[in-house]
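testing teh design pipeline on a random one, pls ignore if ur not involved
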């Protein structure tokens, strides 16, 4: 098996997470074009509803997004907002996410909290790319470290909180709108 073939699943994982990062980024000029470009790199049939996510214009996404997931939106877009144990647990979650970032030398492109779902998926994409790099360089110990960190990060920051966010977004988003499609995609993660 060639190195490229061996790395393909890890690189596809990085592309999926980059797509989710962009889909959850604050809207702005050209974001939908960026989303369409990375969508072309997704494995075929990865998510139901991707095409619906790509049809909106930047302006439509911005108007709908501001009301739903913007700074004063009705659906919080940070994982710590979905902690059921109580408000006091937010600090440790934020600190833990920031600690992962620091440990792997990751600097988010957004100036959002480390538990903003866009930042979470950007970090997970970064980890997948780092894993692929380490594997390509023959450093399986470092590649395994990336896989272990990914599993722990997913367990502690994604698997519990993302479904809660996606359900709340689906309930608040207009039927047939961009964010309804986004919620459908997120429910498949």
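output:
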């Amino acid at each position: 098996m060639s190195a490229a073939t061996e790395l393909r699943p890890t690189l596809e994982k990085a592309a999926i997470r980059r797509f989710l990062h962009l889909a959850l980024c604050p809207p702005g000029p050209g974001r939908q074009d960026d989303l369409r470009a990375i969508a072309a790199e997704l494995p075929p049939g990865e998510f139901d509803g991707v095409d619906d996510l790509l049809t909106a214009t930047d302006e439509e996404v911005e108007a709908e997004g501001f009301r739903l997931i913007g700074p004063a939106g009705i659906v919080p877009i940070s994982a710590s907002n979905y902690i059921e144990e109580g408000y006091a647990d937010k600090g440790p979650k934020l600190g833990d996410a920031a600690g992962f970032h620091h440990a792997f030398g990751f600097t988010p492109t957004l100036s959002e909290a480390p538990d903003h779902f866009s930042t979470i998926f950007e970090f997970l994409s970064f980890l997948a790319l780092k894993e692929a790099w380490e594997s390509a360089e023959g450093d399986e110990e470092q590649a395994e470290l990336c896989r272990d960190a990914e599993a722990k990060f997913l367990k502690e920051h994604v698997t519990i909180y993302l479904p809660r966010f996606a359900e709340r977004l689906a309930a608040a988003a207009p039927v047939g709108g961009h964010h309804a499609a986004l919620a459908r995609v997120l429910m498949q993660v």
